[in-house]
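Ligand-bound model needed. D-malate.
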Amino acid sequence: MTYLKRMLAGSVAALVLALPAAAAEYRIAVGDGAGGTQEALGKAFISALEKETGGKMTGKLFLNGQLGDEQDTVTAASTGTLDFSILAINNITPFSPTVGTLTLPYVILSLEDAEKVTQGELGQKMVDQTIEDAGVRIIGWAYSGFRVLTNSKKPISTVADLKDLVVRVPKNEIMIETYKSWGINPTPMAWTETFAALQQKVVDGQDNPYMTVYSMKFDEVQKYVTNLRYIFSIEPLIVSEQLFQGMSAEEQKQVLAAGAAATKASGEFLRAEEAKIRDELAKRGMEIQDPADGEKEFIELATSAVWPKFYDKIGGKDVLNGVLTSLGRETVQ
Ligand code: MLT
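Prediction:
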């Protein structure tokens, strides 16, 4: 071999050794569009994951339900055909009823409540139960704010105003029963179909947080907003348990640390952005109002009719009482 050839061969070998092994790039399904809390959580997770692993692991977000409807992504992750998903908690409940406690109307009453329950001992129990029930592990939590009611038809401030309004809800029994307690039969529908249904006026309205209304551009097809507070939207980041179990102990630690960092960033994001987003939606023409009488009628009807119906499903009245106690609230008898 000539000197030149030897030198070139040596340089190529050095170059190959200097290149890092290809990073593992995971697919992360995201139910919502750009600009909302789900995307913020996903971005924070990817950057923390890259930092934790020195660039050996990264992720790619697929926004707007490109990898399937939120409920379908739970099945996909559980069977190992999807790596990660970020979705609303109400779309995990059908697979793991205990997390339904977080969807019961008027249980979580603030961002602080949401952080306390999800990041404490109760949250860890829900994580464990979800692995057992659904084959997915919650490794991070996004916080999106209260699900406000939007519609294209008329201003709503009382329960009576809901009459004749066709409202889309997720395929979630607790939410269906909540609207029934307010006297109407809602229309259960997959998240990916919701924008078109609102646009084509198949349904008049829906509920979701301001962050989601904004990221889904619902202001283009909805006019009236009622500041209901019946569900504070919590949106977990889940990983396929099959994928997680295939990782080394060190990798698992890194993934969990990245999830925890993303959770922290999500709370900060909501605190910084929610009021701005609400103002932006008002500027774009949405008419926003509070429910009459401090929401009293909505609260009384929903809590008295819906809570008792779901005690068994969520794992017993004690599960709800555990959450209420941890929040310093009165328990149910
Ligand atoms: C739903 O309404 O199905 C979900 O809350 C949508 C979301 O994840 O933002």
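DSSP finds twelve helices and eleven strands in the chain.
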